[in-house]
């Protein structure tokens, strides 16, 4: 490369200041683009609800003591559906969104899916690519549900959005009710299986208790007048076996009755920390967020353009702009 084409040093700051009009034009374009975007996107409102996991209380009702229930949550054993993170996965699944589409909106007299088909508004540029009939309503419902899990406090924060703040609150409460219905259904399946298992264990314990009782009574009756130490010891051993079998039978019966009670009346899977309320503040679009983003892109892009253009002109041996 010849000396004429070698790059000469220049001040980037001076070059940027010299093109202040270009920066001003780019900033004005960013502001105009922000206004167009925010005015084109329909306003969306949010509703939120916070739930606290109540699986510990279910464990206590199933006969575990306070320490066992606390340790179970602390060491994060595989608890199946009784896990706040499993709740979050279920709420964000497509199957849950499909189910939620059939939820009736009491104030509108229709379900959520038909409400979206009739009232869901999209930005104008989306109509260039898809028609209203081609919109994935289930996908829209999925996008309208967000969850946040706090594993430390075992809480689940559900946020639902909609273009109507009242519908957003109704949807949030519907998500809570659908989740509760799902968890209780799974809980009943588990407790029904436990009830069946405890019924078998109770019957086995009862049989051992009856057999031990019969052996003890028969031996005690047949050796009523005996004073031999060996026979007295045998009678005490049979009595201890009988008492132990009786205690095990009572424990198995108590476990069975607890499981039966949970089948008939399931315990609440979670407590509501904060109820969903109708919020009138706009969740999106956020004018300042769009403005800062577009201004950032405009300033960075303009700076690259100015500096690269200057370098190119120096490389070509041209004069400054």
Describe the structure.
- This protein has 321 residues and is α+β, with helices and mostly antiparallel strands.
- The protein contains eleven helices and seven strands.
- The strands form two sheets. Strands 1, 4, 5, 6 and 7 form a five-stranded antiparallel sheet that branches. A two-stranded antiparallel ribbon has the order 2-3.
- Residues 1-5 and 65-79 have low confidence and may be disordered.
Q: Quick one: biggest sheet?
A: 5 strands, antiparallel
How large is the share of residues in beta strands?
5-15%
DSSP summary: helix tally: 11
Distance between the termini: 23 Å
Total E-strand runs: 7
The unreliable regions are 1-5, 65-79
Taken from the alpha-carbon principal axes, the silhouette is elongated
Mean pLDDT metric: 82
Query: In percent, how helical is the residue content?
Result: 55-70%
What sequence of helices (H) and strands (E) makes up the elements? HHEHHHHEEHHEEHHEEH
Q: Kindly provide the radius of gyration, computed on alpha-carbon positions and rounded to a whole number of angstroms.
A: 36 Å
Structural class: alpha+beta
In short:
This protein is of the alpha+beta class and 321 residues long. The protein contains 11 helices and 7 strands. Helix content is 62%, strand content 11%.
